[in-house]
């Protein structure tokens, strides 16, 4: 679990106070990995507490994080400084948060990032790392994974060293998120709840967080009785609780299939989950019904015909990646999931998307 968290509108201004005790010396900088959507945003950038050799690296989230990108960032940081950084601070959505976690791990662990994709393969503690989300939904701020696309898989580095040492939740940072992205990433959270609450891995810990997150998502996306500020506050907490829920259970069918889409077509996580989830009445009838209602309220048009031009080889890769997500299928359908989910069944489902 994340041991330290600050929440509040405007709490971004506490960053200096938070980082100061963690600065080892004037040669060990803080590296700020920031979504380049903020590159020309002086209101945010001028509030970053830079001193000594601290560095900002702007990163595009047009493509989701890759293991080679993590390796390149680690080499760049190692070459630029004689000492290990005092810390890595990720500022952005799930993409930047995951990059920050992975870079912090790889600065202290030998080899390349793809060698650690899987469960509990990391052996040494990460460099101190801080997560500051600027869009709500993924739960990446609280989870024990960093999802990376590697040479053969889109798979997380899941470990006890992955979670942030500190998270700063300032809902004001999410004010500029475009509406469609707000919906896609927010629905990622909603889908986390549905998949956790309807999974075989469910337990009282996950359920209590999942139910709270579900309730908050409904307030934000369905009831719509909140003003904008309150809506941002609540979605940020929904994301946190949704992440806590899956941390101790698992996601399910939508995520397993969305990973395949993302691997072959580069479809972004939130959008891919929405596209898949829209077709999952068979598995999550109530959850899909409410999803469709929320989609209508917010006039969201999902992409269609995504798989129309795929070759047999593409489908095979998509199905291999998806079926490789064993814990997700097991959570969704139990130990005998392969009696329900066959390559033919998955192909038929993908062909509808
Ligand atoms: P993202 O980080 O890819 O960002 C989506 C878009 O929103 C980008 O264009 C970004 O520039 C923009 N954006 C972000 N904040 C903004 C702001 N305040 N104002 C304007 N634009 C802003 O999106 P995401 O949905 O948060 O993250 C998706 C990534 O998270 C995927 O790579 C996925 O694999 C990962 N993920 C990780 C976990 C985990 O537990 N580690 C869980 C779910 C998803
Ligand atoms: Zn997700």
Helix-strand blueprint:
Layout: E1 5-7, H1 15-19, E2 30-35, H2 42-45, E3 55-59, H3 67-80, E4 87-92, H4 94-106, E5 118-119, E6 129-133, E7 147-149, E8 154-158, E9 166-169, H5 179-197, H6 204-223, H7 228-247, H8 253-265, H9 269-277, H10 285-297, H11 312-323, H12 326-333, H13 343-351
Parallel strand pairs: 1-9, 2-3, 2-4, 4-6, 5-8, 6-9
Antiparallel strand pairs: 7-8
Helix pairs in contact: 3-4, 5-6, 5-7, 5-9, 6-7, 8-9, 8-11, 11-13
Q: Concise description?
A:
By secondary structure, this protein is α/β, with parallel strands linked by helices.
Structure, explained:
By secondary structure, the chain is α/β, with parallel strands linked by helices. The chain has 2 domains: 4-174, Rossmann fold (3-Layer(aba) Sandwich); 179-351, Up-down Bundle (Dehydroquinate synthase-like, alpha domain), CATH 1.20.1090.10. The chain contains 13 helices and 9 strands. The protein has helices spanning 15-19, 42-45, 67-80, 94-106, 179-197, 204-223, 228-247, 253-265, 269-277, 285-297, 312-323, 326-333, 343-351, and strands at residues 5-7, 30-35, 55-59, 87-92, 118-119, 129-133, 147-149, 154-158, 166-169. The strands form 2 sheets. A 6-stranded parallel β-sheet has the order 1-9-6-4-2-3, covered by helices on one side. Strand 7 (147-149) and strand 8 form a beta hairpin. Helix 5 (179-197) packs antiparallel against helix 6 and helix 8 crosses helix 11. The radius of gyration is 20 Å and the shape is globular. The model has no long low-confidence stretch (mean pLDDT 97). It binds nicotinamide-adenine-dinucleotide and zinc ion. Residues 138, 188, 192, 255, 269, 273 line the site of zinc ion (ZN). Zinc ion (ZN) binds next to helix 5 and helix 9.
């Amino acid at each position: 679990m994340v041991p330290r968290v600050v929440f509040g509108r405007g709490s971004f201004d506490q960053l200096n106070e938070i980082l100061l005790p963690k600065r080892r010396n004037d040669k060990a900088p803080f590296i700020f990995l920031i979504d380049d959507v903020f590159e020309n945003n002086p209101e945010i950038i001028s509030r970053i507490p830079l001193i000594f050799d601290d560095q900002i690296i702007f990163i595009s989230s047009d493509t989701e994080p890759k293991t080679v990108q993590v390796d390149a960032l680690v080499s760049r940081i190692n070459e630029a400084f004689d000492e290990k950084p005092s810390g890595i601070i990720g500022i952005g959505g799930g993409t930047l948060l995951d990059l920050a976690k992975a870079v912090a791990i790889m600065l202290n662990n030998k080899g390349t990032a793809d060698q650690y994709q899987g469960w509990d393969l990391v052996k040494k503690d990460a460099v101190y790392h801080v997560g500051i989300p600027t869009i709500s939904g993924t739960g990446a701020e609280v989870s024990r994974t960093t999802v990376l696309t590697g040479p053969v898989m889109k798979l997380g580095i899941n470990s006890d060293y992955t979670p942030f040492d500190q998270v700063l939740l300032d809902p004001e940072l999410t004010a500029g998120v475009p509406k469609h992205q707000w919906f896609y990433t927010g629905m990622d959270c909603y889908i986390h709840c549905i998949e956790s609450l309807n999974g075989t891995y469910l337990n009282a810990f996950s359920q209590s967080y999942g139910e709270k997150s579900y309730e908050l998502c409904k307030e934000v996306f369905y009831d719509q009785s909140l003003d904008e500020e309150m809506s941002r506050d609540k979605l940020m907490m929904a994301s946190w609780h949704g992440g806590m829920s899956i941390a101790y259970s698992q996601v399910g069918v939508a995520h397993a299939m969305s990973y395949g889409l993302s691997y072959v077509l580069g479809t972004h996580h939130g959008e891919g989950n929405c596209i898949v989830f829209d077709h999952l009445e068979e598995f999550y009838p109530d959850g899909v019904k409410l999803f469709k209602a929320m989609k209508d309220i917010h006039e969201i048009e999902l992409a269609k015909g995504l798989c129309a031009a795929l070759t047999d080889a593409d489908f095979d890769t998509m199905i291999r990646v998806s079926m490789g997500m064993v814990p997700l299928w097991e959570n969704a359908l139990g130990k005998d999931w392969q009696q329900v989910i066959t390559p033919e069944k998955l192909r038929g489902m993908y062909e509808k998307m």
